[in-house]
Write a sequence for this structure.
């Protein structure tokens, strides 16, 4: 006997849930980026490009991250809509501000690099999932990864992993090899968190 299940009623997140979730995801991401910056580490994606640009120019990481994301909003508007774009712009703005605020509240001058990279990878990955599930992203390559997942079914985590590998390869000339090694470990953990917990068709909201 075949049992026919009733269709699942998909209830999107309420506005108040987005209002709480987007700052939460942004906080987690900014915290992870701050930890990496404290050890002169690097991550993948456009955030990694921001790290490298900051190291070369001496400009603020938060400012570089915000500005370097600007061209990607065109793709977000064209392909993913204004709602996604506005949420992403808010998230990126909060991340950029958060990276600059953390040093005023906590001193991490004696941070162990491997611990920092692992914690950063888990924090950034979790923050990305929170943003993804509330119709936003961390900007840049995240916009591209989210678009490819929605339009072609490619897992966002795997897309992000491929882009991250390119950025980490470019980091060889700028980041001390021991720090680069622990950064790679953190990057792998980040992408595993996203790939395992953010699959197309598995989450509705």
């Amino acid at each position: 006997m075949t049992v026919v299940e009733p269709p699942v009623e998909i209830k999107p997140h309420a506005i108040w849930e987005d209002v709480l979730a987007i700052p939460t995801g942004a906080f987690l991401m900014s915290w992870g980026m701050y930890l990496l910056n404290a050890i002169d580490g690097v991550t993948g994606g456009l955030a990694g490009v921001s790290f490298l640009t900051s190291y070369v120019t001496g400009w603020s990481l938060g400012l570089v991250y915000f500005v370097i994301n600007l061209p990607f909003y065109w793709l977000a508007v064209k392909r993913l809509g204004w709602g996604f774009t506005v949420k992403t712009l808010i998230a990126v703005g909060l991340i950029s501000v958060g990276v600059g605020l953390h040093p005023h509240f906590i001193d991490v001058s004696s941070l162990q690099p491997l611990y920092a990279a692992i914690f950063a990878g888990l924090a950034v990955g979790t923050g990305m999932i929170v943003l993804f599930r509330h119709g936003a992203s961390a900007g840049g390559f995240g916009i591209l990864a989210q678009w490819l997942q929605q339009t072609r079914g490619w897992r966002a985590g795997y897309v992000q992993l491929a882009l991250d590998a390119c950025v980490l390869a470019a980091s060889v000339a700028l980041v001390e090899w021991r720090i680069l090694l622990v950064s790679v470990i953190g990057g792998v953990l980040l992408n595993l968190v996203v790939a395992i917990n953010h699959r197309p068709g598995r989450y509705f909201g």
